[in-house]
Amino acid sequence: EHEDTDLLLQALLEGQNYGAAAADGTQCPSVAVSRNSPAKRDCLVVAVLCFGNLINFIDWFIVPGILLDIQKYFGLSDGKTGLLQTVFTLCYMLAAPIFGYLGDRYNRKIILGAGLFFWSGVTLGSSFITESHYRIFVLSRGLVGIGSASYSTIAPTIIADLFEEGKRTTVLSIFYIFIPVGSGCGYMLAAGMAKSTGDWHWAFRVTPCMGGLAVLLLILLVPHRIQRKTAAHRALSISGSILEADEKPDVHRTAKNTWCQDVGSLVRNCSFVCSSLGLTAMAFVTGALGMWMPLFLYRAQVVQGIVPPCLQESCSSSDSLIFGGITIGTGILGIIAGAEAARRLRKRNNKADPLICATSMFLSALCLYIALMVAQTNILSTFIFIAFGELFLSVNWAVVTDILLYVVTPRRQSTAIALQILVSHLLGDAGSPYLIGLISNAVQARHVPSLQWSFRSMQYSFVTCAFVGALGGGFFLLTSFYIEEDRKEAQR
């Protein structure tokens, strides 16, 4: 009893912060090295989470992969076509704070499984929607976005609980590699299914089967409770001082603190705010590229006379296949390069992470602008500069998340991720596909309809992305001025 009491007093005097909430609401301190979870189990958990992330982003980019077919099927303008991805992203971002709140307080495994099952079922149902029910198709994409939000918000916090800072960057890099891999596979799966079956609806019938498998793996391989225990946690458990989900403060918090107070604290965190705005610029660019780039490449080749205009019921999806391959390759290389650069440069400069993000955003904006300018005359150069633009964008995925995880206290991480998702999508890729479509419509409306202006309208619209990308680099540069102070504050 005396030993237990001494352990408790020592933990309290050291002022150790509590970690992210456990799956069942039990608070888990974050500063210790030891864990009850064996390494093999942790690897299985990460593998299941990566598989779910793969399916998540495959489903996300099925629509852009067969965009030309969908546009013809429903008879849509560029503006209405862009609305499909905008509705998906709006629902995704609005649901994210809700799942962030739930993820900090309730069983994360149940939330993940329910989200996977829900969006898989809706995706399957959307494959049977007829051409006279465009609004129902739009609604189905919104519901899929809600299911996806549960996964993107909660899965990174489980990784944060399983691994400490040194290993966490590597594991997060592996996890985020499946963003570009899933995105590229989405293009390729959609284009391949449409080509092989002659009916684009079949593209929506593959991921539900994969989603069902992911739910099964989640049930079998992921433990019911995932938490990182420390001496402080054991001491508090012995004393009976661990509180219920919404009454679990760290040493510096009281049970009366609310989610609104968490948000207020995050808003005052300059590194979190600036890096989130940088991520917003990334999301704006990637959302616009992901939705419209295959169609832009098709129109560029039509203007050059490389391919004829599509007048058939099923259009060629070769551009989606190529762009999907580029997305996969550049995504893997970019994320690995970003993680390795961060690992090496952190030893020399404490501001390395935001500086890496800033540099990559500036280079990406430059490559994208060059790609747009040469698109009408040299399609090969266009593909090359688009590849470099995506490569530099991909450098940032894991690095940005790692910035959040070490400038925000573990108790607020799910909420912080949810807020970051909300802001980055609200001001980023929720509006960029629709905005690009509206600008394209406006340009076309001022000229006589032609293949030339169909291409130019999209070209002029994409210049917006180059400007926003450079702006994002500025926000990451601003992050570097605050990151050292905010990191020390989070550790305290």
Can you tell me the CATH topology of the largest domain?
Answer: Growth Hormone, Chain: A
Uncertain spans: 1-37, 228-256
- Rg measurement, Å: 23 Å
Adjacency order of strands in the biggest sheet: 1-2
Please state roughly what percent of the residues sit in beta strands, choosing from under 5%, 5-15%, 15-25%, 25-35%, 35-45% or over 45%. Answer: under 5%
**Total separate domains:** 2
Estimated helix fraction = over 70%
DSSP, total strands: 2
The N- to C-terminal Cα distance equals 30 Å
Q: Tell me the name of the CATH class of the largest domain.
A: Mainly Alpha
Listing every helix as H and every strand as E from the N terminus to the C terminus, the arrangement reads HEEHHHHHHHHHHHHHHHHHHH
What's the CATH H-level superfamily name of the largest domain? MFS general substrate transporter like domains
Secondary structure category? mainly alpha
CATH architecture annotation of the largest domain: Up-down Bundle
Transmembrane segments: 43-63, 83-103, 110-130, 136-159, 171-190, 202-222, 277-300, 320-342, 354-374, 380-405, 417-440, 460-483
Pfam family, one: MFS_1
Protein name: SPNS3 protein
Organism: Sylvietta virens
Descriptive terms for the model:
20 helices; Growth Hormone, Chain: A; 2 domains; 492 residues; globular; mainly alpha; two-stranded antiparallel ribbon
Structure characterization notes:
- With 492 residues, the chain is mainly α.
- It has 2 domains: 38-227, Growth Hormone, Chain: A (Up-down Bundle); 262-491, Growth Hormone, Chain: A (Up-down Bundle).
- 75% of the residues lie in helices and 1% in strands.
- The chain has helices at residues 2-14, 39-60, 62-65, 67-74, 78-103, 108-126, 134-162, 165-197, 207-221, 231-239, 259-267, 270-304, 318-345, 352-374, 379-394, 397-407, 413-429, 432-445, 451-479, 483-491; strands at 18-21, 27-29.
- Strands 1-2 form a two-stranded antiparallel sheet.
- Helix 1 (2-14) crosses helix 10, helix 8 packs antiparallel against helix 13 and helix 12 (270-304) packs parallel to helix 17.
- The longest helix has 35 residues, at 270-304.
- The chain starts with a helix and ends with a helix.
